[in-house]
Amino acid sequence: MADVQFRFRDDEPVADPAVTVDAFGDQTNASAVRLEPGDDAAALIPHLERLRLVEVNFPVWTDGRGYSAARTLREAGYTGELRAVGDVLIDQLNQMRRCGFDSFAPSHELDADDAAAAFARWPHVYQATGDGRPAIWALRHAQ
């Protein structure tokens, strides 16, 4: 299991190792799964109640399929921990958070001050997000 550097959850971290998507179906006691690029996140939708952790691997920072996997799971109602692991860069943190990631285990430790600045960079957003922030148009119309 990857070392978590940033976590935005109040519950206990999952101590169970994540299994592959292929192995998950055969292991009725598994509560953590690891999505690799090319795995279909939608295959996990029937099992969301059972999952406490989904790790999404970013083997290289240029592979954006994990963003889609995160949105797919959050839009389907997944409320467990969604962890970005691997080649996670400072410039990606804010967008990953918007897609619904709530913990981060980068392969190389990130500077904490730079990460805090990245997470706080845009307090308002224009589109619906997976992190619960209302879109700016919704804030405008609520006044």
Number of helices: 5
CATH architecture call: 3-Layer(aba) Sandwich
How many strands, what sense, and barrel or not for the largest sheet? 6 strands, mixed
Poorly predicted parts: none
Strand order of the largest sheet: 1-6-5-4-3-2
Number of distinct beta strands: 6
Structural class: alpha/beta
Taken from the alpha-carbon principal axes, the silhouette is globular
Gyration radius from CA atoms, angstroms: 15 Å
CATH topology: Rossmann fold
CATH class: Alpha Beta
Summary tags:
Rossmann fold, 5 helices, alpha/beta, 27% helix, 6-stranded mixed β-sheet, 143 residues
Structural write-up:
- This protein has 143 residues and is α/β, with parallel strands linked by helices.
- The protein has a single domain, classed as Rossmann fold, CATH 3.40.50.
- Helix content is 27%, strand content 17%.
- It is built from five helices and six strands.
- The chain has helices at 21-24, 65-75, 93-99, 112-120, 136-142; strands spanning 6-7, 19-20, 32-35, 53-58, 81-86, 103-106.
- A six-stranded mixed beta sheet has the order 1-6-5-4-3-2.
- Helix 1 links the parallel strand 2 (19-20) and strand 3 (32-35).
- The protein is globular.
- The model has no long low-confidence stretch (mean pLDDT 88).
Describe the SSE topology:
Layout: E1 6-7, E2 19-20, H1 21-24, E3 32-35, E4 53-58, H2 65-75, E5 81-86, H3 93-99, E6 103-106, H4 112-120, H5 136-142
Parallel strand pairs: 2-3, 3-4, 4-5, 5-6
Antiparallel strand pairs: 1-6
